[in-house]
Amino acid sequence: MTESNERTGPAAEDIRAVPVRHYGRWIAGALILFVAVIVIRSVATNPNMQWDVVGDYLFNERILRGLQNTLILTAISMVIGVLGGVLLAVMRMSPNPLTSGAAGVYIWLFRGTPLITQLVIWNYFALFYPRLGIGIPFGPEFVGTNTNSLISPLIAALLGLGLNEAAYMAEIVRGGLLSVDAGQLEAASALGMSRGKTLRRIILPQAMRVIIPPTGNETIAMLKTTSLVVVIGYFELMLSAQQIYAQNYKIAPLLIVAALWYLFMTSVLTLIQTQIERYFARGSSQTAPEKGWAARMFGFGGLRGGVAR
Protein backbone atom coordinates (compact mmCIF):
# COMPACT_ATOMS: atom_id res chain seq x y z
CA MET A 1 0.00 0.00 0.00
CA THR A 2 2.80 2.36 0.88
CA GLU A 3 4.62 1.52 -2.32
CA SER A 4 1.47 2.23 -4.35
CA ASN A 5 0.98 5.62 -2.68
CA GLU A 6 4.61 6.55 -3.42
CA ARG A 7 4.10 5.76 -7.09
CA THR A 8 0.80 7.61 -7.45
CA GLY A 9 1.53 10.53 -5.13
CA PRO A 10 2.51 14.05 -6.24
CA ALA A 11 5.70 14.24 -8.22
CA ALA A 12 8.79 15.49 -6.42
CA GLU A 13 9.68 19.09 -7.12
CA ASP A 14 12.18 19.41 -9.95
CA ILE A 15 15.71 20.27 -8.83
CA ARG A 16 16.82 23.71 -9.95
CA ALA A 17 20.54 23.83 -10.75
CA VAL A 18 21.98 27.24 -9.91
CA PRO A 19 25.24 27.92 -11.77
CA VAL A 20 28.23 28.86 -9.64
CA ARG A 21 29.11 32.55 -9.76
CA HIS A 22 32.79 32.99 -10.60
CA TYR A 23 33.23 36.57 -9.40
CA GLY A 24 37.01 36.23 -9.32
CA ARG A 25 37.10 35.40 -13.02
CA TRP A 26 34.90 38.36 -13.87
CA ILE A 27 37.09 40.74 -11.89
CA ALA A 28 40.29 39.32 -13.42
CA GLY A 29 38.81 39.56 -16.92
CA ALA A 30 37.76 43.18 -16.37
CA LEU A 31 41.24 44.09 -15.09
CA ILE A 32 42.95 42.40 -18.03
CA LEU A 33 40.64 44.15 -20.49
CA PHE A 34 41.26 47.52 -18.79
CA VAL A 35 45.06 47.07 -18.91
CA ALA A 36 44.89 45.89 -22.54
CA VAL A 37 42.96 49.00 -23.59
CA ILE A 38 45.50 51.25 -21.85
CA VAL A 39 48.48 49.48 -23.45
CA ILE A 40 46.96 49.44 -26.95
CA ARG A 41 45.98 53.10 -26.72
CA SER A 42 49.46 54.04 -25.48
CA VAL A 43 51.20 52.16 -28.28
CA ALA A 44 48.85 53.46 -30.97
CA THR A 45 49.06 57.12 -29.95
CA ASN A 46 52.73 57.29 -28.95
CA PRO A 47 54.42 59.66 -31.45
CA ASN A 48 57.82 58.07 -30.74
CA MET A 49 56.63 54.88 -32.42
CA GLN A 50 56.52 56.74 -35.77
CA TRP A 51 53.97 54.41 -37.33
CA ASP A 52 54.14 56.28 -40.63
CA VAL A 53 57.83 55.37 -40.91
CA VAL A 54 57.01 51.78 -39.95
CA GLY A 55 54.56 51.63 -42.86
CA ASP A 56 57.14 53.08 -45.25
CA TYR A 57 59.79 50.46 -44.41
CA LEU A 58 57.62 47.40 -43.70
CA PHE A 59 57.97 46.21 -47.31
CA ASN A 60 61.30 47.87 -48.04
CA GLU A 61 63.46 45.95 -50.52
CA ARG A 62 66.34 45.49 -48.07
CA ILE A 63 63.98 44.38 -45.30
CA LEU A 64 62.38 41.78 -47.59
CA ARG A 65 65.80 40.54 -48.71
CA GLY A 66 66.85 40.15 -45.09
CA LEU A 67 63.57 38.36 -44.39
CA GLN A 68 64.24 35.96 -47.25
CA ASN A 69 67.71 35.15 -45.93
CA THR A 70 66.27 34.60 -42.44
CA LEU A 71 63.77 32.06 -43.77
CA ILE A 72 66.47 30.29 -45.78
CA LEU A 73 68.73 30.09 -42.73
CA THR A 74 65.89 28.77 -40.59
CA ALA A 75 64.82 26.08 -43.07
CA ILE A 76 68.29 24.73 -43.90
CA SER A 77 69.50 24.89 -40.29
CA MET A 78 66.46 22.95 -39.07
CA VAL A 79 66.96 20.30 -41.77
CA ILE A 80 70.57 19.89 -40.64
CA GLY A 81 69.47 19.88 -37.01
CA VAL A 82 66.66 17.32 -37.44
CA LEU A 83 68.71 14.91 -39.59
CA GLY A 84 71.71 15.26 -37.31
CA GLY A 85 69.50 14.89 -34.24
CA VAL A 86 67.95 11.64 -35.47
CA LEU A 87 71.39 10.23 -36.28
CA LEU A 88 72.82 11.27 -32.91
CA ALA A 89 69.80 9.90 -31.02
CA VAL A 90 70.16 6.50 -32.71
CA MET A 91 73.91 6.55 -32.00
CA ARG A 92 73.27 7.54 -28.38
CA MET A 93 70.99 4.53 -27.90
CA SER A 94 73.36 2.14 -29.64
CA PRO A 95 74.70 -0.78 -27.57
CA ASN A 96 78.15 -0.04 -29.03
CA PRO A 97 79.97 2.04 -26.36
CA LEU A 98 82.13 3.85 -28.91
CA THR A 99 79.12 4.92 -30.99
CA SER A 100 77.15 5.96 -27.93
CA GLY A 101 80.15 7.74 -26.44
CA ALA A 102 80.89 9.68 -29.63
CA ALA A 103 77.31 10.95 -29.73
CA GLY A 104 77.47 11.83 -26.04
CA VAL A 105 80.67 13.86 -26.51
CA TYR A 106 79.15 15.72 -29.47
CA ILE A 107 76.02 16.63 -27.48
CA TRP A 108 78.12 17.66 -24.48
CA LEU A 109 80.38 19.88 -26.61
CA PHE A 110 77.73 21.69 -28.65
CA ARG A 111 75.26 22.14 -25.78
CA GLY A 112 77.99 23.22 -23.41
CA THR A 113 79.28 26.20 -25.41
CA PRO A 114 77.32 29.35 -26.36
CA LEU A 115 75.92 29.45 -29.88
CA ILE A 116 77.39 32.89 -30.52
CA THR A 117 80.84 31.49 -29.71
CA GLN A 118 80.33 28.62 -32.14
CA LEU A 119 79.28 31.04 -34.88
CA VAL A 120 82.41 33.14 -34.41
CA ILE A 121 84.64 30.03 -34.38
CA TRP A 122 83.16 28.76 -37.64
CA ASN A 123 83.52 32.20 -39.21
CA TYR A 124 87.20 32.36 -38.23
CA PHE A 125 87.91 28.66 -38.70
CA ALA A 126 90.85 29.56 -40.93
CA LEU A 127 92.71 30.73 -37.82
CA PHE A 128 92.76 27.09 -36.66
CA TYR A 129 93.02 25.35 -40.03
CA PRO A 130 94.16 27.70 -42.84
CA ARG A 131 93.72 24.88 -45.36
CA LEU A 132 91.29 21.94 -45.46
CA GLY A 133 92.09 18.84 -47.46
CA ILE A 134 91.80 15.08 -47.81
CA GLY A 135 94.88 12.89 -47.92
CA ILE A 136 96.99 10.31 -46.14
CA PRO A 137 97.99 11.23 -42.57
CA PHE A 138 101.53 12.64 -42.66
CA GLY A 139 101.44 12.00 -46.41
CA PRO A 140 100.45 13.81 -49.62
CA GLU A 141 97.20 15.75 -49.89
CA PHE A 142 94.83 14.57 -52.63
CA VAL A 143 92.20 17.31 -52.48
CA GLY A 144 92.50 20.62 -50.61
CA THR A 145 91.32 24.20 -50.59
CA ASN A 146 91.76 27.44 -48.71
CA THR A 147 89.52 27.54 -45.63
CA ASN A 148 88.49 31.18 -46.13
CA SER A 149 87.20 30.45 -49.62
CA LEU A 150 85.35 27.35 -48.44
CA ILE A 151 83.64 28.73 -45.31
CA SER A 152 81.77 31.88 -46.33
CA PRO A 153 79.57 33.78 -43.84
CA LEU A 154 76.55 31.78 -45.09
CA ILE A 155 78.31 28.43 -44.59
CA ALA A 156 79.56 29.55 -41.17
CA ALA A 157 76.01 30.53 -40.18
CA LEU A 158 74.58 27.20 -41.36
CA LEU A 159 77.29 25.20 -39.61
CA GLY A 160 76.88 27.13 -36.38
CA LEU A 161 73.07 27.01 -36.29
CA GLY A 162 72.59 23.53 -37.77
CA LEU A 163 75.21 21.62 -35.79
CA ASN A 164 74.19 23.32 -32.56
CA GLU A 165 70.54 22.48 -33.19
CA ALA A 166 71.44 18.84 -33.87
CA ALA A 167 72.66 18.48 -30.28
CA TYR A 168 69.32 19.65 -28.88
CA MET A 169 67.25 17.67 -31.40
CA ALA A 170 69.18 14.54 -30.45
CA GLU A 171 67.80 14.70 -26.91
CA ILE A 172 64.29 15.48 -28.19
CA VAL A 173 64.34 12.50 -30.56
CA ARG A 174 65.87 10.24 -27.90
CA GLY A 175 63.10 11.20 -25.47
CA GLY A 176 60.50 10.41 -28.13
CA LEU A 177 62.05 7.02 -28.87
CA LEU A 178 62.21 6.14 -25.17
CA SER A 179 58.51 7.02 -24.80
CA VAL A 180 57.56 3.99 -26.93
CA ASP A 181 57.01 0.81 -24.92
CA ALA A 182 60.10 -1.42 -25.04
CA GLY A 183 57.86 -4.46 -25.48
CA GLN A 184 57.14 -3.43 -29.06
CA LEU A 185 60.86 -3.53 -29.87
CA GLU A 186 61.08 -6.99 -28.36
CA ALA A 187 58.00 -8.17 -30.30
CA ALA A 188 59.44 -6.87 -33.58
CA SER A 189 62.74 -8.60 -32.83
CA ALA A 190 60.87 -11.85 -32.15
CA LEU A 191 59.23 -11.54 -35.57
CA GLY A 192 62.65 -11.28 -37.19
CA MET A 193 62.55 -7.57 -38.05
CA SER A 194 65.89 -5.81 -38.20
CA ARG A 195 66.69 -2.97 -35.80
CA GLY A 196 66.59 -0.38 -38.60
CA LYS A 197 63.28 -1.63 -39.99
CA THR A 198 61.76 -1.71 -36.51
CA LEU A 199 62.87 1.87 -35.96
CA ARG A 200 61.37 3.08 -39.26
CA ARG A 201 58.13 1.09 -39.23
CA ILE A 202 57.18 0.87 -35.54
CA ILE A 203 59.15 3.10 -33.18
CA LEU A 204 59.48 6.41 -35.07
CA PRO A 205 55.80 6.71 -36.17
CA GLN A 206 54.68 6.40 -32.54
CA ALA A 207 57.48 8.59 -31.21
CA MET A 208 56.44 11.44 -33.53
CA ARG A 209 53.61 12.38 -31.16
CA VAL A 210 56.22 13.21 -28.54
CA ILE A 211 58.83 14.62 -30.95
CA ILE A 212 56.67 17.03 -32.96
CA PRO A 213 55.69 19.61 -30.24
CA PRO A 214 59.25 20.38 -29.03
CA THR A 215 60.50 20.30 -32.63
CA GLY A 216 57.96 22.99 -33.49
CA ASN A 217 59.19 25.02 -30.55
CA GLU A 218 62.79 24.57 -31.73
CA THR A 219 61.83 25.77 -35.22
CA ILE A 220 60.23 28.91 -33.82
CA ALA A 221 63.27 29.47 -31.60
CA MET A 222 65.58 28.94 -34.59
CA LEU A 223 63.72 31.64 -36.54
CA LYS A 224 64.58 34.15 -33.83
CA THR A 225 68.05 32.73 -33.14
CA THR A 226 69.11 33.50 -36.71
CA SER A 227 69.44 37.12 -35.58
CA LEU A 228 72.69 36.06 -33.84
CA VAL A 229 74.45 35.70 -37.21
CA VAL A 230 74.73 39.48 -37.16
CA VAL A 231 77.99 38.93 -35.24
CA ILE A 232 79.58 37.37 -38.34
CA GLY A 233 78.13 39.95 -40.71
CA TYR A 234 75.66 37.76 -42.58
CA PHE A 235 72.80 39.78 -44.05
CA GLU A 236 69.47 38.78 -42.49
CA LEU A 237 66.39 40.58 -41.17
CA MET A 238 67.94 42.14 -38.07
CA LEU A 239 71.08 43.26 -39.87
CA SER A 240 69.02 44.79 -42.67
CA ALA A 241 67.10 46.86 -40.12
CA GLN A 242 70.33 47.90 -38.41
CA GLN A 243 71.91 49.02 -41.69
CA ILE A 244 68.88 51.15 -42.53
CA TYR A 245 68.61 52.90 -39.15
CA ALA A 246 72.38 53.45 -39.14
CA GLN A 247 71.77 55.67 -42.18
CA ASN A 248 68.52 57.46 -41.31
CA TYR A 249 68.65 57.24 -37.46
CA LYS A 250 65.05 55.96 -37.37
CA ILE A 251 65.95 53.37 -34.73
CA ALA A 252 62.55 52.84 -33.04
CA PRO A 253 60.42 52.34 -36.17
CA LEU A 254 62.98 50.02 -37.82
CA LEU A 255 63.10 47.86 -34.70
CA ILE A 256 59.30 47.71 -34.79
CA VAL A 257 59.45 46.64 -38.45
CA ALA A 258 61.78 43.77 -37.57
CA ALA A 259 59.65 42.78 -34.57
CA LEU A 260 56.45 42.76 -36.66
CA TRP A 261 58.00 40.47 -39.25
CA TYR A 262 59.28 38.11 -36.54
CA LEU A 263 55.82 38.06 -34.95
CA PHE A 264 54.17 37.32 -38.28
CA MET A 265 56.54 34.46 -39.11
CA THR A 266 56.33 32.87 -35.66
CA SER A 267 52.53 33.09 -35.82
CA VAL A 268 52.48 31.23 -39.14
CA LEU A 269 54.86 28.58 -37.77
CA THR A 270 52.67 28.18 -34.67
CA LEU A 271 49.60 27.47 -36.80
CA ILE A 272 51.55 24.98 -38.92
CA GLN A 273 52.80 23.28 -35.76
CA THR A 274 49.28 22.82 -34.39
CA GLN A 275 48.11 21.27 -37.65
CA ILE A 276 51.04 18.82 -37.68
CA GLU A 277 50.35 17.94 -34.04
CA ARG A 278 46.71 17.20 -34.86
CA TYR A 279 47.79 14.97 -37.75
CA PHE A 280 50.10 12.81 -35.62
CA ALA A 281 47.65 12.78 -32.69
CA ARG A 282 44.91 11.07 -34.71
CA GLY A 283 43.39 8.19 -32.81
CA SER A 284 44.85 9.40 -29.52
CA SER A 285 42.86 10.48 -26.48
CA GLN A 286 44.93 13.67 -26.49
CA THR A 287 43.46 14.89 -29.78
CA ALA A 288 42.54 18.55 -29.36
CA PRO A 289 39.04 19.76 -30.32
CA GLU A 290 38.51 21.93 -33.35
CA LYS A 291 39.20 25.59 -32.59
CA GLY A 292 39.65 28.81 -34.48
CA TRP A 293 43.09 30.14 -35.35
CA ALA A 294 43.11 32.61 -32.45
CA ALA A 295 42.21 29.89 -29.94
CA ARG A 296 44.93 27.60 -31.30
CA MET A 297 47.57 30.32 -31.22
CA PHE A 298 46.80 32.08 -27.93
CA GLY A 299 44.98 29.32 -26.02
CA PHE A 300 41.65 31.14 -25.63
CA GLY A 301 39.07 28.90 -23.99
CA GLY A 302 41.32 27.07 -21.50
CA LEU A 303 39.98 23.65 -20.57
CA ARG A 304 36.55 24.24 -22.09
CA GLY A 305 35.68 21.85 -24.88
CA GLY A 306 38.56 19.41 -24.51
CA VAL A 307 41.97 18.64 -23.18
CA ALA A 308 44.18 21.64 -22.52
CA ARG A 309 47.40 21.52 -24.50
UniProtKB/TrEMBL annotation:
One of the record's GO molecular function terms: transmembrane transporter activity
Top-level taxonomic group: Bacteria
Entry keywords, A to Z: Amino-acid transport, Cell membrane, Membrane, Transmembrane, Transmembrane helix, Transport
Subcellular localization, as worded in the UniProt entry: Cell membrane
A Pfam cross-reference name: BPD_transp_1
Gene Ontology biological-process annotations: amino acid transport
Family per similarity comment: Belongs to the binding-protein-dependent transport system permease family.
Name under which the protein is recorded: ABC transporter permease subunit
